[in-house]
Amino acid sequence: MIRERALSKGMIFGITLILMLIGAYNCCFLCFPVDNVHPQWRNQKQSKLIIPQGGYIRLQAEGMDPEELSYAILTTNETGVWRNITEPAFLWRQEAVFGFDNFGTATYEDGVLYAPSKGDNNVYAINASNGNIIWNRTVRQCDASPCISYGVIYVGECSGPYGESTPFPRAMALNKTTGEEIWHFIEPHNSTWVGSPLVHGDYVYYTTFGSGIYALNKTDGSVIWQTNIGKVVCSVAYHNGVVFVSAYDPPRQYAFNATTGEEVWHANYGASWDSSPVIYEGMVIQVTRDTTTGIWSTNVLNETTGELMRRFEGKGSPSTPLVREGKIFIPDDDWRMWAYNLTTGEELWHTENLHNGILQDYSYSSPAFSGGAIYYQSLNGTFYMINETDGGVLWSYPMGDFGFGSPSVGDGCVFVTNDFALFAFGIGPGSGDWPMFCQNGFHQSSSEQGVHYLRWPLTQPRCFKESNVWVTASFTWCNKTITSAAIAWRIYFFDRTGNTNATDVMTFYVNPPLSDIAVVNISFSKRNPLVNETISVYVTVQNKGVLNETFDVNVTYTRTFDPLIGTQTVTLGTGESMTLNFTWTPTASGGHKIKAYVSGVLTDANLSNNAKEAHIQVFKPLLLRGPYYSWSGIEYWIVQFRKHAMRLISKHN
After folding, report:
1. Are 551 and 600 a contacting pair, CB within 8 Å?
2. What pLDDT is recorded for position 624?
3. DSSP characters for 314-366?
4. What gap in Å lies between CA 568 and CA 582, rounded to an integer?
5. Beta partners for residue 247, in sequence order
6. DSSP secondary structure letters along 450-480
7. Does 358 score more than 50 pLDDT?
8. pLDDT of 151 above 70
9. Calpha distance 468→494 (Å, rounded)
10. DSSP SS3 for 115
């Protein structure tokens, strides 16, 4: 089928050749002369000192080698034993799955992927553990994700990427184990089958580019009902006996009785292209495009009536948004992904630019979620792992060629197709259900266990092949199973002949027990001392945390710099407090700021109470001149005080 993108900016023709990392470090091992110079490193950094359980941290250092810096790996000490955690996230790729505009997502079930390949007009069954082909079946220009139900795969034949006709296009049912055809139904008006099929009960629902929506008998492919709503370029969604769909031409959104095909409601909020409806807690979320202005928006409709509840104006693309736990994640044609509170419309975050504008500004990949991370492919072929909480990019992988396909999850892996191949990446042990982009609970990749990370994302080794240039090796670490620990880490740099050099050992903390040391009061033995008069500065500190702590209490005074009055090391049990006496002799008059602060507690959870300030005025001493004169046994003195002369009775004989 011809995509709207082909009409907007024109096509870029070419073949992108890339070298992929096939093994753990295959890109790094070649034969070179002996080299005894070890790599150098500098600027070792960690983004945080403390992270919560399940949080993530970026660990990095710069490396350089005069001959050739080859790669870097991250090691950590989580349990008292150093080990290399830098395992390739990339597992395998299968290049039999390819083709320009390869939009269909590979569907996962029971250790097997079922992947459309527009490049050679096939659907493949592929071993999910190693990428080997199990079987393939001719399905011309399949443009959508196969639907699996009770051992049967449902697919449809579409048109070519530039609208090339596919004569007598078939809706098909295949045996899941062998790929043998069970039945097919030819669309009588030559309208191609576009969206991903959906099975519910005895029905399998299809959409077409020209004949609307079909409900076929899933056993033999016979037509149960059909409603011609024109050209549809998306899948249907099902909920509570109703199927929902959005049309491209003429533009309109519909709800139909799933059994009879009778219309429940319709509305017109714009045209849909590739973006399918999402059903969530009484709402229908649908991305549409204004046919006059060309602006994409994401609409939130009442599931029962179709009335507009909210619109994220100017946010959307041909992607289907991800909706979960009251939040919506919208890929936008500004090259970023936006997260909003679905109820209030409040923006939660947006990512950095994920695309560079190659081919188009649009996004076609629909994001997937698993274990606290969002998976997404930009149109330039870069695969991203994004933190659900703040939108930070945890990891990215350039796959080469254009990226139209959406990711799917299974067996601790994420799978994604692009125009070059089908890729598999490891994301941690375990696997789990992931409703695909229709979000209807029936069309899904599934397996028996729950999705779970050990870390993000099994940190890919960084290969450089640079000489005499400082390069940054940056890794992202997370472990959801560690409840509280101090984690030591370092990075190893390798040159092309295997020489290595390791950074220093640094430490960060995962959810440490709460420390809280507070400076609660500062007082003085005399409020208005004179110059060169020694006074006491009393500092009261308290341990408000749950651990016994030993720390330093420092007291300074401020003039043009902060001279140190003194430091005392204190040990306090939890809940205890202590008042310390610091002696101080001011050497100048005027206002002074006294500051007391604690140091030496790296895991203090409340830094705001670690310091306290007080002000004190220091005066010059009195200057006596005289006696001036004596009269009747009384001596009169002239006293110089704050620049003014005054008479003072000093002595009475």
Report:
1. yes
2. 53
3. T---SSPPEEETTEEEEE-TTS-EEEEETTT--EEEEPSP----SS-S---PP
4. 9
5. 252
6. PP--SSSS--PPEEEEESS--EEEEEEE--T
7. yes
8. yes
9. 14
10. strand
Q: State yes or no: pLDDT of 523 exceeds 60.
A: yes
Q: Where are the alpha helices (DSSP H) in 155-306?
A: none
Residues 401, 405, 406, CA angle at the centre, nearest 5°?
135
Give the Cβ contact number of residue 190 at 10 Å.
16
Continuous H helices in 167-269: none
Buried b (16+ CB within 10 A) or exposed e, 296-327: bbbbbbebeebeebbbbeebbbbbbbbbeeee
427, 275, 439, 457: CA torsion to nearest 10: 10
Length of the chain: 653
Give the pLDDT confidence score for residue 472 in this predicted structure: 83
Q: Using one digit for the tens of pLDDT, what is the confidence trace for 495-512?
A: 888 788 999 999 888 887
Read off the pLDDT of residues 414-460 as tens digits, 9 standing for 90 and up: 899 999 999 998 775 433 333 333 333 333 333 223 222 223 333 44
Burial class (CB in 10 A: 0-12, 13-18, 19+), 178: exposed
Backbone angles phi, psi at 5, to 5 degrees: -60, -30
Residue whose entry in the numeric block shows the structure tokens 């399905």: 139
| More confident site: 314 or 469 | 314
Alpha carbon distance 379, 11 (integer Å):
13
| Number of neighbours of residue 634 by Cβ within 10 angstroms | 13
And the tokens for 299? 């609409």
Ramachandran region of residue 75, left (φ > 0), alpha (ψ -120 to 50) or beta? beta
Interval 165-175 mean pLDDT? 95
486, 80 Cβ separation under 8 angstroms = no
- pLDDT at site 642: 47
Q: Which domains does the chain have, with CATH numbers?
A: 31-88+458-510 (2.60.40.3880), 90-445 (2.130.10.10), 517-618 (2.60.40.10), 623-652 (no CATH)
Q: Which residues contact 386 (CB under 8 A, 6 or more apart)?
A: 337, 351, 367, 373, 374, 375, 376, 392, 393, 394
- Token duo for residue 624: 């006596």
* CA proximity to 122, closest of 108, 104, 142: 142
Q: Which residue has the tokens 């050992």?
A: 505
Structure-token pair, residue 626:
């005289």
Within 13 Å, how many C-alpha atoms sit on residue 33's CB side?
2
CA distance 156 to 173: 9
Count CA atoms closer than 13 A to 197's CA, side-chain side: 30
SS3 386: strand
- Neighbouring C-beta atoms of residue 343, cutoff 10 Å: 14
In the 8-state DSSP scheme, what is residue 234? S
Residues 6+ apart with CB under 8 A from 554: 564, 566, 567, 596, 597, 598, 599
**Tokens matching residue 489:** 């880490």
